[in-house]
Amino acid sequence: MADFLLELLSEEIPARMQAKAQADLARLFEEHLAAAGLKAEAIETYATPRRLALIARSLPAETEAVSEELKGPRTSAPPQALEGFLRKTGLTQEQLTERDGAYFAVIEKPGRATASVLAEAIPAIVRAFPWPKSMRWGVDSASTESLRWVRPLQGIVALLGEDIVAFEIAGIKSGAATVGHRFHHPGCITLGGAHDYVEKLRACHVIVDPAERRRIIADGAHKAAADAGLTLIEDDGLLAENAGLTEWPVPLPGAFDPAFLEVPREVIQLTLRTNQKYFVLTGADGALAPNFLCVANIDASDGGAGIIEGNRKVLAARLSDARFFWEQDVEVPLAEQWKKLSQIVFHEKLGTVADKVERVAKLARWLVEEGIVGRTLSPGGRGQGEGVRPSGVPADSEPPHPNPLPVGEREKLADLAERAARLAKADLVTGLVGEFPELQGIIGGHLARAQGEPDEVADAIRDHYKPVGQGDEVPTAPVTVAVSLADKLDTLVGFFHIDEKPTGSKDPFALRRAAVSAIALILESNSRVLLRDVLAFARNSYREQGVGGVEVEPHGDTVRAVAKAAYETVFMSSVFDFMIERLAVQQRDRGIRHDIIGSVFALARAGNVDLVSILARVKALQSFVETPEGADLLAGYKRAANILKKEGWPPSVTPAQAGVQSDEGLDSGLRRNDEAEQVRNKELSYTPENEETALIAALDSAEPRAAAAVEAEDFEGAMAALASLRAPVDAFFDKVTVNDPDPAKRTARLNLLLRIRDAVHQVADFSRIEG
Questions:
Q1: Interatomic CA distance for residues 366 and 58, integer angstroms
Q2: Which residue from 133, 114, 110 is spatially nearest to 122, judged by alpha carbons?
Q3: pLDDT digits over 29-48, tens only?
Q4: pLDDT at 53 over 90
Q5: How is 562-585 classified by DSSP, letter by letter?
Q6: Residue scoring higher pLDDT (445 or 560)
Q7: Which helix or strand (DSSP H or E) is residue 226 part of?
Q8: Which end is more exposed in the chain, N or C (fewer Cβ atoms within 10 Å of the end residue's Cβ)?
Q9: Can you tell me the distance from the alpha carbon of 206 to that of 179, in angstroms, rounded to the nearest whole number?
Q10: Which of 423-432, 529-538, 681-690, 723-732 has the lowest mean pLDDT?
């Protein structure tokens, strides 16, 4: 057994590529070993800015001899088939065996020296290595067949035990020599094997293990911050990047002019982190400190004073530029900057950014004025506007529900929302955002505050892009929610209208993210958004601007009007369904059963409902159907629905309304015609059986209680009311014959089943629930 060492020395490997390169090297090496019948006891990989290395532990001296059996043609096959098989195997016919009417060849493969296997595998791995970006170099680079590597390859170490594994790649021969640190030990180092690789390079000021370099940087940075009485802002990404930029990391603390702190904090942090790769420090009060921490790649003789001073000068120049832009921008009111947005195209079919701002401002104001966004918690009741509790609901059965603000307060909030929306995109034309585009919105918030705008307006400008991804903060302040929601819904409506919908994995305008973000805003702020109404309002804003208009062939006013109406119906349904589907996917990812989602979301598609209510209904239904009462009621419902479907009852209602799974099945009871209602409510002309009477009484009690609970959005209460039907339904089916020969009895009992189905459909389409 022997250890194998491989080191690929090159010019600087980008820090962002090193971790994946380690994983790819281990994977490819293991695959090539397995193909040759070899397996290492363990594989270790290392990466520095100049080298990618691998150590494979305990490789055998040679592969094992193996015997392989190949099945050939049948003995009755034409001679040409046999001749081809003999050429393939290199055997004679006498060496074949016959079994079950076919020829078989047993091929003995002798063992191979592991060094030979490695000498073939390493060049293949290097040539096929999947760098995200690679290059050719030198004279040979004129040919597309020349070697590609992340940066020019300079040397190869390949040692099995203490012996060199000889091979050549693009004129570079494998050997046992490498180099140490570029400055501390630039000379040649001869390695003895894998056993002393890590320590010999450490002695030459190279730490090959990235994890160890990260620990050195983290420990040194925390110590330097503590010595200065400051706190280090943790940044794993920056830690990994600095570890990938250094072979001998030395953390060094520095300071900059406190006068630069008048620049917004985010600008300073971005300058330090992104441009300079410096760590950011804060004081005891959490405020940004005029200090930084850089990581050198050398143990300087002056303790790093020269390095710190050089970094300070570079940072001062960058912060001076940032301060210049800030001072220039803060002098120009955002309302003046806003006028320049008419010069920026949002999309060639959707107008300018100024057009978008106008639409968003109008929608944001409407969201507040309608009481959709901006509510106060009141103990009055659920979903009843000013706290009116429906009859039949116990006074202590529900938690507080958000109610619309009084009209006067609502107008003030609407003014703030409109103001914030009009200024939200103004920072796009500022110098600071031009220099730091990732700070759009944030810069606008700082400018708004510095220019005396209300805090609600400044906060909304700052946060109106949020949330931008999974795990991002979701705003809940009413003004911010109104502006952010309006912005995202306007984007969705616009791009759907010009048929730029996501297709498969393609989503160039991030519409899925916009929908998910809008849903998060609605749910987190508990905003009662009737999606169809809001989407229609947003669509109408495009129409009023004459942007992205619908082109209809001019075959007469009536035909054109009908065509436009048909388009609007299809368009609204597509946006609505897209958002509902995003919510469904989100809930499935959170463990909600797909059939429960389908049963409740059918209601969403059939009507103009709000997402908060739908989600509450989903959660309550999943809890209910997993109880014994829920399971039994579901079984009784399905039995009733199946009988109704089989009998085609009621005759005047379509099969879809009679229990077939359909998006329109939920409100079938509401659409029943007068004749069917009269039959249903007709007094019985016979004496009902006891179980029939008990079920009628149970329905008379449960139906109004369930309806009142649904109206109050107390879905747990609605489920409890339905659960009371469990025993009467079971008894009814056990003792009563529905299809009685007496037409009066049959009609009355089918109508009773209809009542069961309609009572359950107040909550969800139970026909979609499995079980």
A1: 72
A2: 114
A3: 999 998 888 899 999 999 99
A4: yes
A5: HHHHHHHHHHHHHHHHHHHHHHHH
A6: 445
A7: helix 210-227
A8: N
A9: 9
A10: 681-690
Q: Which fold has domain 614-768?
A: Isoleucyl-tRNA Synthetase; Domain 1 (1.10.730)
Do the strands 153-160 and 172-175 form a parallel or antiparallel pair, or are they unpaired? parallel
Distance from C-alpha of 760 to C-alpha of 685, rounded to nearest angstrom: 27
- Tell me if domain 2-63+114-203 and domain 66-109 are identical in fold: yes
Q: Angle at CA 270, nearest 5°, toward 265 and 273?
A: 120
- Average pLDDT of the residues in 723-733: 91
Query: How many angstroms separate the CA atoms of 116 and 165, rounded?
Result: 8
Element (H, E) at 179: strand 177-179
The residues spanned by each domain of the chain are 2-63+114-203, 66-109, 210-330, 352-591, 614-768
Residue 590's pLDDT is 85
What confidence tier does 460 reach under pLDDT thresholds 50, 70, 90?
very high
In words, the CATH class of domain 66-109 is alpha beta
Quick one: DSSP state of residue 113?
A: B
Separation CA 542–CA 291 (nearest Å): 50
| HSE-CB for 459 with a 13 A CA cutoff | 13
Q: Is 577 exposed, middle or buried (0-12, 13-18, 19+ CB in 10 A)?
A: middle
More confident residue, 376 or 399: 376
**For residue 355, what are the contacts with CB-CB under 8 A and spacing of at least 6?**
346, 545, 547
Are 491 and 575 within 8 A, CB to CB? no
Q: 2-63+114-203: what CATH class?
A: alpha beta
Report yes or no on whether pTM surpasses 0.90: no
